[in-house]
Structure formats: structure tokens, C-alpha cells
Specification:
6-stranded mixed sheet, 44% helix, Rossmann fold, 2 domains, 7-stranded mixed sheet
């Protein structure tokens, strides 16, 4: 009798366990069915002359995916989606950019593609994404209104980052207020077809009562910038504008100018972390250098959201934080906010939803409240307008002076 009892109890236990397993599997299947993934691709210069920038941006995208997935993912209608980033290389080459975009769209079945750094690569990407009804998200752009930019003729293209030209006036406002004795400036820029950007900087300088004495172009691959600075300094300018230079070039410009005897202010318009200049050339040589970058260790104006991105960076990569990733984080965050607002993953619906988010605060970024704009300027409200930083290096310290919302009608 005892053996039968044991057998009976064991059989009952097995049956109960089987039922429990069945319900657990069913419950897991339901969760798995609801928890889907939205794939977002990027094409950035992970190799080549702008690899430092491209890698920091790709990492910013990955950090956002980790951050949002840790919070439970995106809610699109009644479904939950995890974000999966697929990062590809452009090598600063339009043909490579097109090949990478083709891989994302056709093999990975991505409907949202971010990229790239230079305009020809942006054009190449859109040439692939548009026929497949995928949304091209401009992460960065050199020439506003050019063939790579948003327009009525390019309905599946949005720009989810401010353009450097939107910070020119902010930087020159500071120049004339902080350095009232500055009356002249000499400019330099990479020789990659940025004539419209240079023209805008000249116009802004003139509007601020500053005369442009000279403009020097140099090859993107150049790392000996002493000849460039020598020619600029021969004009004896009060200030030097080193333009949209990448992190690899900016310290070289500053070092060359200072070692050649220039003591005036130096400004830049790229969103580069000023700590890169400070670390590379030292406190004395980097004094009175300012521009559109952010140092996460600034004693003021750094937002909690910026610190959060930096925390995730250090946790994932265990390296010094590169503030370029703040913009990359925002590009994907803005896109995902539009997806949730649209309650759809249809690229056309997401694009039209973004275009309607024109009220300040419709979108949130790590820099503060944002909106979409550009209707009067570009014919469509498909450009992100969010606060732009202004930081200055003084006496070996970096201050984030302001976060100013630029104008874009």
C-alpha cells in the first residue's frame, strides 16, 4: 500500500508540474509575441578620416538602445518593442555608404536608416532608402538646403539634429560680447565643398561688425596645419574661426596658432567636446577657445539627461566619455518619440508625425525641450530645433555657458 501511495503522489506531482510548465510556456509565448523588435540602421564613418566622430556616434546609438530597452522598450500602440541598432560603415565614401545602406534595407529589412557625416554620403543613402520606402534620418549635415537636405521633393527624409549653421550666430554673439576689442577674424575650413557654410559664417561675422580678413581651405586628410595658421596670421586677425573642424583637427589648429604667437580668441562651430582640445594642448594654449561643444564635467548647465548618457557610456565602454554621443543619442530618441506618438512603425506615418511636432516641448532631448521646424526655410517642418551649447575654456577649466535655442523659421 505504501508503494502505491508513493506512486500516486508522484504521478499527481508530475501532472501538476506538467500543467505549471504548460501555463508558463504559454505565458512566455504571449510575452514573446508582444515583445517585438524595431530595427534601426546607421551608416557612419567608423573607419577613415572621420572615424573618431563616426565611432562616438555609433556608440551613442547603442547607448540609447541599452537605455530604452532597460526601461522596457518602446510602446507602439498595444505592443512593446525592443530597439535593435545595426551600425554599418561609410568610410566617408559615397559608394561605401550606398553599399552599407543597401545591406541594411535589403538584407536586414531596416525601415529607418540614420546617416551620414558628409553630404555626398547622405545623398547616396537616400538614393537607396527612398525607392524602398524607408525613412532616411540625417544625423549631421554640412550644407543646409543642399541636395542631401530635407525638402518637399524628399518626403522620406528628416533631419534630427541641428546644423552647425544654426550655431554661427550664437558663437558670434558671444565673441562680440566677451571680446569687444575684436574687429577682425580669419577663417579656415576643410576643403570638402562647404562654400555655403563659409558664406554663412562670413555673413554672420559681417552682421556682428567683424571684418573677415582671409579664408584658408585645407584637405580633410591634412594634419600639418602650421602652414594654414601661418597664412591666416599673416593678416594679423583679432580672432580665428577654425570652422567645423573634427576632433582630430581642432587641437592641431589651436596648437599651431598659439605656437606661432597668436593670443586672441579662437572659436569653432562643430559640436566637439572642448575637453579634447584642453587635454591635447594644455591649459595655457587652450585659453580663450570656445565653441558649440559640451564638457560633461562643467560645473554648470549640464543636464541630468546628459549625465545619464555619460553614465551609460562609462558602464558600457569603460573609456573617457565623448560628448558627440549626446547628439547621436538624441537622434534615435527623437525618432522613437515620434514612433510612439504615431503609434506606428510605418516610415511615412512617422515622418508626417514628426512634421506636426512643431510646438516647443513636443520632443525632449538631452539638451532640453525641442520641436520640429524649417517650414519657411526648407518648405517642410522636418528639422529638429533644440538648444545649442556654448562652452569656453578659461584658465584650464571648461564652462558650459549656455544652452540657447537657435532660430529656424
Amino acid at each position: 500500500m505504501r508503494k502505491k501511495k508513493i506512486y500516486g503522489v508522484s504521478l499527481t506531482g508530475v501532472l501538476v508540474l506538467a500543467v505549471v510548465i504548460m501555463f508558463c510556456v504559454a505565458g512566455y509565448s504571449q510575452v514573446a509575441a508582444k515583445e517585438k523588435a524595431v530595427k534601426i540602421g546607421s551608416v557612419m564613418p567608423i573607419s577613415g578620416p572621420q572615424a573618431t566622430v563616426g565611432l562616438s556616434w555609433a556608440r551613442g546609438y547603442e547607448i540609447f538602445a541599452d537605455w530604452i530597452n532597460d526601461k522596457g522598450g518602446l510602446t507602439i500602440g498595444s505592443d512593446t518593442y525592443m530597439v535593435k541598432m545595426i551600425n554599418e560603415d561609410s568610410g566617408m565614401n559615397p559608394e561605401v555608404a550606398a553599399s552599407s545602406a543597401t545591406k541594411l534595407v535589403h538584407k536586414d529589412k531596416v525601415k529607418f536608416v540614420i546617416g551620414a557625416i558628409i553630404d555626398p554620403c547622405g545623398e547616396a543613402i537616400y538614393g537607396v532608402t527612398a525607392p524602398e520606402k524607408a525613412l532616411h534620418i540625417l544625423s549631421f549635415l554640412n550644407i543646409p538646403g543642399g541636395p542631401a537636405d530635407v525638402s518637399r521633393e524628399r518626403p522620406l527624409k528628416v533631419r534630427l539634429n541641428i546644423h552647425n549653421g544654426m550655431v554661427h550666430a550664437i558663437n558670434y554673439d558671444y565673441l562680440v560680447k566677451a571680446y569687444p576689442n575684436v574687429k577682425t577674424v580669419a577663417m579656415t575650413e576643410m576643403n570638402i565643398g562647404l562654400d555655403p557654410v563659409i558664406a554663412d559664417r562670413k555673413s554672420v561675422a559681417k552682421q556682428h561688425g567683424i571684418k573677415v580678413l582671409a579664408t584658408e581651405l585645407y584637405p580633410l586628410e591634412s594634419f600639418d596645419l602650421y602652414p594654414v595658421q601661418t597664412r591666416l596670421l599673416s593678416c594679423q586677425p583679432d580672432a580665428i574661426d577654425i570652422g567645423n573642424c573634427p576632433p582630430d583637427h581642432a587641437p592641431l589648429h589651436v596648437k599651431a596658432a598659439r605656437e606661432l604667437g597668436f593670443k586672441g580668441p579662437i572659436l569653432y562651430h562643430s559640436p566637439m567636446d572642448p575637453a579634447i582640445i584642453l587635454r591635447a594642448v594644455g591649459a595655457e594654449k587652450s585659453n580663450d577657445v570656445f565653441g558649440a561643444g559640451v564638457d560633461i564635467n562643467s560645473p554648470k548647465n549640464v543636464k541630468d539627461e546628459m549625465r545619464e548618457v555619460a553614465k551609460w557610456w562609462k558602464k558600457k565602454y569603460r573609456e573617457d566619455f565623448v560628448s558627440d554621443s549626446l547628439m547621436a543619442f538624441d537622434v534615435v530618441w527623437t525618432l522613437c518619440q515620434a514612433m510612439e506618438k504615431a503609434r506606428s512603425l510605418d516610415p511615412e506615418v512617422v515622418a508626417s508625425t514628426l512634421e506636426a511636432m512643431t510646438k516647443l516641448g513636443s520632443l525632449q532631448t538631452v539638451f532640453g525641450a525641442a520641436r520640429m521646424g524649417g517650414l519657411k526655410t526648407f518648405g517642410v517642418n522636418r528639422v529638429l530645433v533644440r538648444p545649442a551649447p556654448l562652452s569656453v575654456i578659461k584658465s584650464g577649466k571648461i564652462d558650459l555657458l549656455s544652452l540657447t535655442l537657435p532660430e529656424l523659421p
